[in-house]
Amino acid sequence: MNYNEAMNMKNVEFGNMPPQPFLLGLLSTFDNRYQAAADTFFQEITWKQFFAIICINICKEAPTINDLSDVMGSSHQNVKQILIKLEKKDYIKMVTDEKDKRKQRIYLTNKCREFCEKNDPQSQKIVDCIFKGIDENSLLITIQTIMKMDKNLGDEFIVKVLNDAAQNKTE
């Protein structure tokens, strides 16, 4: 595949880059562009804050910060900062767990539900535009590929390789 033609970018030269690093870069680029566009769309909150709301919403029960960190694929500290901002805006409420006082459960507020309801139709239009021309089979293959990459990222071997590489950088 000629990445230069596919990307229609004149100021870069991809050369004979293997598809694996190209895909990783493409995913990062897409994430950055999507985040910037979503931040513009959701004027009251950021894309990351909205993503946290989505993740809270898909949990079977009110999640803890650790639960939400796992779902979002982000650190406890980053998720906590997102939640603090959402709580200040009255989109979520953090409540001490009745069974374990060390834990806090995260609940969406009525203000958050109203926000989601108000923005859902336009959000769906944006999603439809992003996936325009992509058939379901291609989408399922992409999902399977990214899920396999995510599983590999969590495998013990790659964790060891990443830890070893980080340790070698500090030595």
List keywords for this structure.
171 residues; 68% helix; globular; 3 domains; Arc Repressor Mutant, subunit A; 6% strand
How would you describe what is shown here?
The protein is mostly helical and 171 residues long. It has three domains: 1-41, no CATH class; 46-118, Arc Repressor Mutant, subunit A; 133-171. The chain is built from eight helices and two strands, in the order αααααββααα. The protein has helices at 3-7, 19-41, 47-58, 65-72, 76-88, 110-130, 136-154, 156-170; strands at 92-96, 104-108. Strands 1-2 form a two-stranded antiparallel ribbon. The longest helix has 23 residues, at 19-41. The chain is globular. The mean pLDDT is 89.
Topology of this protein?
Blueprint: H1 3-7, H2 19-41, H3 47-58, H4 65-72, H5 76-88, E1 92-96, E2 104-108, H6 110-130, H7 136-154, H8 156-170
Antiparallel strand pairs: 1-2
**Number of DSSP E strands:** 2
Extract low-pLDDT stretches: none
Name the CATH superfamily classification of the largest domain.
Winged helix-like DNA-binding domain superfamily/Winged helix DNA-binding domain
**Overall tally of structural domains:** 3
Structural class: mainly alpha
Assign the CATH architecture of the largest domain: Orthogonal Bundle
- DSSP summary: helix tally: 8
Largest sheet: 2 strands, antiparallel
What is the share of helical residues?
Answer: 55-70%
Summarize the helix and strand pattern as letters: HHHHHEEHHH
The radius of gyration over CA amounts to: 19 Å
Query: How would you state the average pLDDT, rounded?
Result: 89
Brief account:
This protein has 8 helices and 2 strands; from the N terminus they run αααααββααα. By secondary structure, it is mostly helical.
